[in-house]
Structures are given as structure tokens and as C-alpha cells.
Amino acid sequence: QVQVVESGGGLVQAGGSLRLSCAASGSIFSINAMSWYRQAPGKQRELVAVIINGGSTNYADSVRGRFTISRDNAKNTVYLQMNSLKPDDTAVYYCNAIINRLTYWGQGTQVTVSS
Q1: Consecutive 10-residue averages of pLDDT for the chain (115 residues)
Q2: DSSP letter string over 27-68?
């Protein structure tokens, strides 16, 4: 059984910072990629950032230069450092992990940015 659990969301003023964490646990033999998605009310879920084996990263244009994804392989944990937050970043943020060639989603964590 594999679990993926996010933490670190909350309420922050525009211009502020938050760091999200996503920890994978259970019978893990390989993690191919970990990523963050977000879904704002009335909008489709969108990819925010991804980190794959070897450390390569990619970002949505809307967050590039403000958000940083990183991974602690020893802890099977991925982080999303979010700086210079904007009200448009308000959404539920979901962790996605490809573990043992299967896809797992976390339950989501709310990020609210006030103007």
C-alpha cells in the first residue's frame, strides 16, 4: 500500500511565501517522478511543476521564476517552495507521484493568497 500526503498549505498575503511538502510512504521500490498540480474553483486541474529521476525539473509558465520544486530522495518527499505569491495562485494543490509505475494522488492542500 502506497500513500501520498501533502502538507503546508494555508492563507498568505500577496507577495508572501509558502512551502508545500508531499511525502510518499509504503511499499516503494521506485519513484519515477513527482509533481504538483493545482485546481482553482471553476477551472481544470493544471500542472504546476514536475521533478523526475535525475533531478530534471519543469514548470508552468505562470510560476516559473517564483516556484521551486525539489526532492529529498532519502525521505521520498517532494517540496514546492512558492515565493512572490499572487491571488491567482489560490487553488487546491495536489501532489502526484509515479511510484512503482503506478500513479498516486494526494488529498490536496488549500493555498489561499489574499490581495
Answers
A1: 95 98 96 97 97 93 98 96 98 97 96 97
A2: S-S-EEEEEEEEE-TTS--EEEEEEETTS-EEE-TTTBTTEE
